[in-house]
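May I ask for a single protein's sequence together with how it folds?
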Amino acid sequence: MAANKPKQSLEQKIENLIYFVRHGAYGSKYLTNYGVEQVTRTGKQILEDLTSNGYEQGLEITIYTSPLTRAVQTAQILQQILGQAYNVEIVLDDRLEPDSYEVESVVEEILDNNKKVAVIVSHKPDLEHYLDIALNTGDAVRVRYQNKQIIK
């Protein structure tokens, strides 16, 4: 009699996991105290999501961020929080500047380089534009990919 194979969880089947994060609330160009609180909550949610779904400590995570100050500050806060359990690198990417609408090319690069977990920090119109096209909604926070295809 054949042994029963344990069922593979959805998380184990996921090849790539990308979090899309809008920078926190800002004043002239810097995050406000409220913006820092927003990003801190988001970072803790991502950390909880990763650890509760079995992503092992020491995993490499790349944060791709717009070079604008508010986005870089957001990425740095996320790096501090996620760095408690994971190896986190920040990459400044001009394609994520406001109104560039090139989020899709960053996603393609992440998938082509087979990054297991990545975070994209950008600006609302650009993220909404990409998510509207990819998911027919602008309200997504977490997007799962399998075989370079979005799992809805």
Summary: The domain at 14-151 is CATH 3.40.50.1240 (Rossmann fold). Strands lie at 16-22, 60-65, 87-92, 117-122, 142-146, 149-151. The first strand starts at residue 16 and ends at 22. Confidence is low (pLDDT under 50) at residues 1-13, 137-141.
